[in-house]
Protein: DNA replication and repair protein RecF
Amino acid sequence: MKLLKLNFKGFRNLEDGFIEPGEKVNVIYGENAQGKTNLLEAVWVLCGAHSFRGAKDSELVGFNSEKARLYAEFYSQNRVQNVQINFYPTQNKKDKKEILINAIPKSAAELVEKTGAVVFSPEDLTLVKSGPAFRRKFIDSAICRQKVKYASVLGKYNKTLNQRNALLKDIPKHRELMETLEIWDTALCSLGGLLIKERIDYIKKLNLCAEEYHDGISSGREVLKITYDTNFETENLTSQQLAEEMLKKLRAGVKEDLMRGYTGTGPHRDDVNMEINGVSARNFGSQGQQRSTVLSLKLAEARLHREITGENPIVLLDDVLSELDNSRQDYLLNKTENYQVFITCCEESNKEQLKNGRIFKIDRGKVRLMSSL
Structure:
């Protein structure tokens, strides 16, 4: 996918206008609170119809604006296409968001199928720093964007898990319900086996790509290793065999589950390990190393997106250059030419490292093209 033109009107603090980005790296610089992240958010929204910052649709509408309108022309699936999304600030419309692809009303899911983007924001450092839930969400979200069926299985698993957990809380009061637990165990493990298999296969591929990117980002000084962590054997097992292993573990821990009132085994409890040179990136990595780890994961996600869908995603890097040394900055600015990249930065000196691409300045929401290299 290549973004050819982006128009914005009434979106966040951006002054009504447009940009025509370059095919390779696009640097957007300016002081804090001028609209750099809002511009990246606009690109992301056009690739999935929601904000990567967790904002509600109505919050994307600028102050004193009746609605926000985003329009983009892009090249995807071997042809030039266009998308328009209208957002409304009030509740007086049944639908607060309208999506038109090639002038035809479409759903957000249909938009995702035609577009693709990968985003890094400072909040993504929680992938390394925080608990397992953030890493599970990253893996699940990446797979969902590339395999629609995975999202369906994940939804069914979470629903079944909630029902089993509710049953665990009820059994101490109603012992006769114990007989029904086995039914939920079987259903949960069948779905869990499918999820774990998809995660393991994806992480194996992700690890190979991330290792290569991290080697480039660190100039060969660091080796990154990504592995899947669950509490039972998974090596070379089919999804059915994984379901059987999970069922064994689940039944062995039923007493503990009843005491806790929730399910202690399954993909909802698993983790993703990240190591740099054999030690935990979370516990021992520096700020720069942790940032490089997440960047490697994001670039690896982009490559896997291309391998699975046949389309290059747009890569959005928000405030990525801070806390990276010059060699790591140079890699991101000049050695990611396989993708159309948008990078925001505050330091004007950062843009001087760019050898091939376009440079935009944003000031109080107004975007201007400064140079094209």
The chain is about 40% helix and 20% strand.
